[in-house]
Each structure stands twice: as structure tokens, then as C-alpha cells.
Amino acid sequence: MQKRNIYKGCNIENASYSVTNCAERTALFSAVADGEKEFVAICVVGGKNGEITDYAFPCGVCRQAHCLNFAMQISKYLLVKVKMI
């Protein structure tokens, strides 16, 4: 039976851009630290100042982190655009 855990992430900003960590990697690293090794899907939702107006695409570093470590296991990569109520 597959687990259905949901891991959330947030951007961790730093004046030194290379030290900044994106929300996608924060969620991924939280899951891995919690012992997760298999993923059903990754869902990315976001927008400027918390207002979701368009799709939020992962940056290249996040794509690389996901692909190098889990590409063969992830069956769905979702980009979602929804209005906050």
C-alpha cells in the first residue's frame, strides 16, 4: 500500500542567491528526511505575493534535484493554477 503523505515547502531566501532554497526542494528534502523514497506525484502551486495568477514552474535546480534523484519513480508532475478563496 502506498503512503499518501503530503509535504509542503516554502522558499528560504538569503541575500546570497546560491544559498536560497526553493519551496519544491524544501518539500522534497523534508520528505527524504522523513524517510520517503517513493513518490506518486509532485504538485507545484505558487504565485507572486501569494496570489495565484498563473502556473508556477520549478527552476532548473529544482528540476535537476527531482530528476537526478527520483525521475524514474515519479509518475506525475503537476503544475496547478487555482484561485484562492
Question: How would you sum up this structure, described in words?
Answer:
The chain is of the alpha+beta class. The chain has one domain. The chain contains 2 helices and 2 strands, in the order H-E-H-E. It has helices at residues 23-33, 60-70; strands at residues 41-44, 76-79. It has a two-stranded parallel ribbon. It is globular. The mean pLDDT is 77.
How do the helices and strands line up, and which of them pair or pack?
Elements lengths: L22 H11 L7 E4 L15 H11 L5 E4 L6
The arrangement of helices and strands along the chain is HEHE
Multimeric status of the protein: single chain
Record the strand order, biggest sheet.
1-2
Q: Rg, please?
A: 13 Å
The level of helicity is 25-40%
Main beta sheet:
2 strands, parallel
Q: Which structural class do you get from the secondary structure elements?
A: alpha+beta
Instruction: Tally the helices.
Output: 2
Compute the average pLDDT: 77
Beta strand count = 2
How many domain modules?
1
Shape: globular
Beta-strand content bin: 5-15%
Ends distance: 34 Å
- Name the poorly predicted regions: none
Brief synopsis:
The protein has helices at residues 23-33, 60-70, and strands spanning 41-44, 76-79. It has 85 residues and is of the alpha+beta class.
